[in-house]
Amino acid sequence: MNDKVLLAHGSGGRLSHDLIEKYFMPRLDNPILNRLDDSAVLEMKGRIAFTTDSYIIKPVFFPGGDIGRLAVCGTINDLSTSGAVPKYLSLGLIIEEGLPIADLEDIMASVSETAKEAGVFVVTGDTKVVDHGSADGIFINTSGIGIIPEDIDISGANAKDGDKVIISGTIGDHGITVMAQREGLKFTVPVESDCAPLNGLVSDILKVSANIHCLRDPTRGGLATTLIELASQSGVGIQIYEDKIPVRDAVRGMCEILGFDPLYIANEGKMVIIAGPEDADIIIDILRKNRYGGDAAVIGEVTSQQKGRVVLKTGLGSSRIVDMPAGDLLPRIC
Amino acid sequence: MNDKVLLAHGSGGRLSHDLIEKYFMPRLDNPILNRLDDSAVLEMKGRIAFTTDSYIIKPVFFPGGDIGRLAVCGTINDLSTSGAVPKYLSLGLIIEEGLPIADLEDIMASVSETAKEAGVFVVTGDTKVVDHGSADGIFINTSGIGIIPEDIDISGANAKDGDKVIISGTIGDHGITVMAQREGLKFTVPVESDCAPLNGLVSDILKVSANIHCLRDPTRGGLATTLIELASQSGVGIQIYEDKIPVRDAVRGMCEILGFDPLYIANEGKMVIIAGPEDADIIIDILRKNRYGGDAAVIGEVTSQQKGRVVLKTGLGSSRIVDMPAGDLLPRIC
């Protein structure tokens, strides 16, 4: 009967309480959340990282993940970029009236599984329901808190001349997968979203190198936009080599057919690492041992030339400035 | 030309950066946000409160406030219910393509003013844009972090037999105001939303009483739902007196005409306080001196009877059990 989400599920009344008790608490169960006060109470000491992201991806389910996994991974990865150990998440749902309850259950199962995989707890939440036509299925906001170990100082402003630029794996998988889903395209070689929590991978490399200067996950705007941001924030130039950047054949093929550049396609399970050159080899070794870092590669270096800019050296030996895209190649990719 | 929000403003590319630089940073400027890393870095020690809420109110502008003020107040008030001193907010925007930039500017001005009034900083944010028809104007998520002073232990589970139940002012103002806006109703007596940050009020009463056991802001579901939650969480009964509950004439009149009960109408600037009876007078004195507590009143008490239930004594001396509403009286009120 009630196989769809109703406006009343967001009312704060009895149906809201039922939704929380029946579908959310069994999945998210932990002593902090279980208090059910308006705020979670956490013990903290030292520096913490705090971040927020809303997820509006379309479609909600896609090969390699769904909006639930994405919402947990995205915020975990943002926390990880400051070198923090992610600990606690909030979960804010905006649901369109009429969303199948079965979809909500699948999404909550993903949230729960991904949080367990990453070792984080959802400690506070909120559910709102809007009338049919006033949203598109479900939007999720996750905010997150992580603890920054004492000796860590990682920021987009810390890249230094001579540093190496590393990517933890192939680029473009997420964006191309979601677009293919949306457009109903068929691939001969299947491609999946890379959507993954990278806190383990980051913690692995921080254990072996004290010379990691910047971490950033190249999501919206892709690797190109991320590198331009880092070059600008640090006031340095970045030079990258086209033929060192790992791209799957299926992604490269799709990009060629459609006129996209993989540099601008979103990733949801990759990390850009800028580190002192002396540690590049050990970082690559460690990344490749991680389940999410098998295709890690050094793709370029930081220079003192062309400050604030990213220069791409092509396979043919020519150079071009990498521009920040004005707008969207692919809207609603995350 | 660009007087409306475009999909490209949410792309992560150049237009996203322009939007942030032009409209957000000047309003929200603070050293933590200005780093522009993916996570804010905060120094913390001891217990912190962490909470999240999404705001989907319709219409976005209403007498007494707008979605920007509401989003800041709502999360500040949730933090305050744990006795925390609110410190930092995140701001997650989901904007429908086509929202007038002028509206966005007004909303950001409200966010900024309300944050200043309450002494909190927006330290991290995110902006997503969805295609026209996939959202309704703008939705805002705010998550917040506050610091809980050492000697504070406030929870919905702490109400004790004999405690007094206090409300910080008139009920129903917010819900009735928003409904009147939406329905185009005209009042002879004007009514405004009570939307306000209550951290100052909470801090005032915590200074004079060590016997405050529960704090909760009666938003969705109104005073009735909040009291039922507290009775249930604490395993106590709550008895309230109809003629002691402050209600504005205009709100009472509207409720009578439309068949609503003010007990169930949302508030956005009120606090329910449950405290030891010995401190009720001083708490009322202090509340009434605060700009948001002028109509504060003791409205009932905690009992050991009818555990988990709220009983209303009417003006005529009869009693009735106050039920939790199943669904929405007024959807999209916050």
Just give the CATH class of the largest domain in chain A.
Answer: Alpha Beta
Largest interface: A-B, 83 and 83 residues
Q: Give the low-pLDDT segments of chain A.
A: none
What oligomeric state do the depicted chains represent?
homodimer
> What is the helical fraction of chain A, as a range of percent?
25-40%
Task: Tell me the radius of gyration of chain A.
Answer: 21 Å
The CATH architecture of the largest domain in chain A? Alpha-Beta Complex
Distance between the termini of chain A: 32 Å
Number of helices of chain A: 8
Question: Helix and strand string of chain A, N-terminal first?
Answer: HEEEHEHEEEHHEHEHEHEEE
Which range does the strand content of chain A fall in?
A: 25-35%
The CATH topology assignment of the largest domain in chain A is Phosphoribosyl-aminoimidazole Synthetase, Chain A, domain 2
CATH superfamily of the largest domain in chain A, called what?
PurM-like C-terminal domain
